[in-house]
Specification:
Helices cover about 40% and strands about 20% of the residues. It is an alpha+beta fold. It has a 4-stranded antiparallel sheet with strand order 3-4-6-5, covered by helices on one side.
């Protein structure tokens, strides 16, 4: 199978930029920009970039790495912005299943599959695309924040297989503890 470089909607980067601005202000934007090579900075912070543009996933990874380098706490999830999309899901498993179905709205290639391991753990599988090394920096915090927003306790996502390292697919094991108090997403 001849795979092309996978693209992601520029919406991802635009939302990350908004997050940085809301969290760290204009100095935060400048700190992240300073960590990017000039060519990347021009692409990622172009005033012409719109949400529906396709960009190479590696650009989004480089942006995440620049954020991590500037603030040193890893890449924060941005799932709160998607809360309304998942508000009608009945359980953490249903939230993750809905996120699987949304894959092709944000990525131009690949398919996802969710496999249940237990009542509080699943495997998320991504196949049929070419993803750059460290792309999990975009996905793991997203999965954990989705579950956190839903009310699951101690969510943990571990990337156990990777296309970028020669595996036939990417696999992420996602686990959590159920909250006995929360049955709907926070803020919904």
């Amino acid at each position: 199978v001849d795979l092309h470089v996978t693209n992601v909607k520029a919406l991802y980067v635009l939302q990350c930029r908004d997050f940085i601005l809301e969290t760290h202000g204009e100095p935060g934007i400048e700190a992240v920009k300073a960590k990017l090579a000039p060519g990347l900075r021009e692409q990622l912070y172009s005033p012409l970039l719109v949400a529906s543009d396709w960009i190479d996933v590696n650009l989004a990874v480089q942006h995440a790495l620049a954020y991590d380098s500037a603030f040193g706490d890893g890449v924060s999830g941005h799932a709160a912005e998607y809360r309304s999309v998942f508000a009608q899901a009945a359980s953490p498993e249903a939230v993750l299943e809905k996120s699987s179905r949304l894959w092709r709205r944000f990525y131009d290639a690949g398919d996802t599959q969710l496999l249940s391991l237990s009542p509080t753990s699943v495997v998320k599988r991504i196949s049929g695309c070419d993803l750059p090394e460290r792309h999990e920096l975009l996905l793991l915090p997203y999965y954990e924040e989705l579950l956190r927003q839903w009310g699951a306790r101690d969510p943990l996502a571990r990337h156990t297989k990777c296309i970028a390292r020669g595996a036939e697919c990417c696999e992420t094991v996602i686990s959590w503890r159920r909250s006995s108090l929360t049955t709907a997403p926070r803020g919904a």
